[in-house]
Design goal:
The complex is a heterodimer of chains A (320) and B (313). Chain A has 14 helices and no strands. With 320 residues, chain A is mostly helical. Chain A has 2 domains: 64 residues; 232 residues, MetI-like (MetI-like fold). The chains are: A mainly alpha (320), B mainly alpha (313).
Chain lengths: 320, 313
């Protein structure tokens, strides 16, 4: 297809969509009676709910059922797929890595975001300083992975280096290091990429709630002689505790589902795979539908408690 | 849906009282400034390194570090030329695909979500609250869980509808991607827009109803103008999400050159040509430029959306 044809397809799709919705709404508006009200409700609600039922509810149920089936999805095999996840040595590494990701990423990103937000709070160049940390959020995880892969690039020690981190190691007199190859530290170096992206999110939300701390609390503490680190520890952190929890849980949820970084950086090789990547590999590369479905369902099960906790904390925040 | 301040943080600085300003001075030590500077440098240097590399000639990129550029500057656009038009990479095609994917994938879910959000906020029908909670709950379904059944249904749709996937699918195969992105966006979009709509005073709606306006008129004449900032905030999110997405495109575009976006091609290059840094660096920036422009020019809306809790995964 040429570019022109693609744009044509796009305009046809947009035009058709708008035309259909316009006609439906116009017709619904014409009927003025009790029936008309019902018709309007249906016109407003039906497209979205049908799409959600077809695209989320039905597939979720189907996948959970598939997770109890064999590789080709023909016969039921009970919990065997789940047994594989929790016993096979490859899958155990996947679980170990996923645990690493979900524990380290939220804590590191939130800590850095929080410290940075406090440090630059009310600084003269605050807006600019924020934009610097925030920018990685706008770019794709694929782009971020390439940016960091370049940082990690490896050349033997005697050669000129093109990766900054190995150049630093070399300048300090160390041997250069294969950041993405050496297991298990390589997972940590991939986590760095996610922290780099997510710190901006943490910083923005936490900065907003730091600014919401009433001035008189800060003032009173200051009159009592509290300052510096003690101010941070005893005033700032307790005051924004609910926001901290929301940021931590939100980042854990995102991290659990992330697959782009592992896919782009290592392709899941060198023992770096995580649940979301393993799901993709099993489903679309190894064509083991059953195991893929079980991995996806496990992801689902792991996400639920964090989401529930996250929503509860948000409710609390709203109520304040 | 979250946080105590609706205020945009970037605009909050001028309102600081004198007392607080003084308190601040006592907090800021040279060490604090140093720590902030270190973080800021750590967060920008990786990007700068790749950016500089994208303008260096191939042999230099491959044999010397980008930091030597400061003592030995050179400049070329060859990398961009090759990455965009070279037969091997041909990113120009994928750039077009990204645009063609993204625009409908933003317009369709936002239109449908705004309509549904209005119904949940201002229309009365039995089972409304139950249905709304159900839609809200759908947010927790990770998209991985939906992919295989959805793909199966696209290939073999129910009721004898034409297949949406494959080489002779209508629209060249874009429909599966548009539809998937739209579906995945809906629960969060409905939830957020509903929250914004609920904040609009009921009297406004009542008055319009008394004047004889139907729901369609109220929606188009009253609601849409008031909702513009909220819609803009979500539109930016959805735009960045779709443009930067890899998983949905990988699964539903099926690696087809006619429908795959930039991210798919870049991830592929990163795997197959992982030492072609002159191409990878330029390629990465080709994919970054659109989201960066969108983000920088509409940052205000983006931050507002973020503080309203629009975070998706």
């Amino acid at each position: 297809m040429s570019s022109g044809e693609k744009f044509l397809q796009m305009f046809i799709a947009i035009f058709a969509f708008i035309a259909v919705m316009g006609v439906v709404l116009f017709l619904a508006d014409r009927v003025r009676s009790r029936r008309g009200e019902v018709l309007q409700t249906v016109a407003f609600l039906l497209p979205a709910t049908v799409m959600i039922a077809f695209g989320l509810l039905y597939p979720a149920i189907k996948t959970i059922m598939q997770s109890f089936q064999d590789a080709s999805g023909t016969s039921y095999i009970g919990f065997d797929n789940y047994k594989t996840i929790f016993t096979s040595s490859d899958q155990l590494i996947v679980l170990r890595n996923t645990a690493f990701w979900v524990i380290v990423t939220p804590i590191a990103a939130t800590l850095i975001g929080l410290v940075y937000a406090v440090l630059i709070d009310r600084a003269r160049i605050e807006k600019f300083a924020k934009a610097l940390i925030f920018l990685p959020m706008a770019i794709s995880l694929v782009g971020a992975s390439i940016i960091w892969k370049f940082m990690y690039d490896y050349r033997a020690t005697e050669n000129p280096q093109i990766g900054l981190l190995n150049q630093i190691l070399k300048s300090l007199g160390f041997d250069t290091y294969r950041f993405l190859l050496n297991d298990p530290a390589n997972t940590l170096f991939l986590i760095v990429i996610m922290v780099w992206v997510q710190a901006g999110f943490a910083m923005t939300v936490l900065s907003a709630s730091i600014k919401a701390i009433p001035d008189d609390i800060v003032e009173a503490a200051r009159l009592d002689g509290v300052s510096g680190f003690r101010m941070f520890r005893y005033i700032t952190v307790p005051s924004i505790r609910p926001s901290l929890v929301v940021v931590l849980t939100t980042i854990s949820i995102t991290t659990l589902k992330v697959f782009d970084i592992v896919r782009t950086s290592t392709g899941g090789n060198f023992n770096t795979s995580v649940l979301a990547n393993e799901f993709y590999t099993q489903s679309f590369r190894a064509f083991n539908t059953g195991l893929g479905a079980a991995l996806a369902s496990l992801l689902f099960v792991l996400v639920i408690p964090i989401v529930v906790y996250n929503v509860r904390q948000m409710r609390k925040l709203e109520a304040r | 849906m979250t946080t105590t301040t609706p205020e945009v943080p970037t605009s909050a600085a001028p309102q600081v009282s004198v007392a607080a300003g003084e308190a601040h001075k006592k907090l800021t030590s040279p060490w604090a400034s140093l720590a902030a500077a270190v973080i800021a440098i750590l967060w920008t240097v990786p990007t700068i390194g790749l950016f500089i590399s994208s303008f260096r000639p191939e042999n230099e990129v491959k044999t010397s570090g980008w930091w030597t550029w400061f003592t030995n500057p050179s400049f070329t656009l060859d990398n961009y030329d090759e990455v965009l038009h070279g037969s091997d990479t041909n990113l120009a095609t994928y750039f077009v695909n990204s645009i063609v994917i993204t625009i409908p994938a933003v317009i369709i879910p936002i239109t449908l979500a705004t309509l549904a959000a209005y119904a949940f906020a201002w229309m009365k029908f039995p089972g409304r609250d139950v249905l709304f909670v159900a839609v809200f709950a759908m947010q927790i379904v990770p998209i991985q869980v939906t992919m295989i059944p959805l793909l199966t249904k696209y290939v073999n749709p129910p009721f004898g509808l034409p297949s949406l996937a494959g080489s002779d699918a209508p629209g060249g195969g874009f429909y599966t991607i548009w539809l998937s992105h739209s579906i995945f966006a809906l629960p969060l979009a409905i939830f957020l827009l509903h929250n914004f709509m609920k904040e609009i005073p009921a009297e406004l709606i009542e008055a319009a109803r008394v004047d004889g306006a139907g729901h369609v008129k109220i929606f188009t004449r009253v609601m849409l103008p008031l909702m513009t900032p909220a819609i803009a905030a979500f539109a930016i999110f959805q735009f960045l999400w779709v443009w930067n997405d890899l998983l949905v495109a990988l699964v539903f575009a099926g690696g087809n050159q006619d429908t795959s976006p930039l991210t798919v091609r870049l991830a592929e290059l990163s795997g197959t040509r992982d030492q072609a840094w002159h191409l990878l660096s330029a390629g990465a920036f080709v994919s970054l430029v659109v989201p960066l422009v969108v983000f920088l020019s509409l940052q205000r809306y983006f931050v507002r959306g973020l503080l309203a809790g629009s975070v998706k995964g």
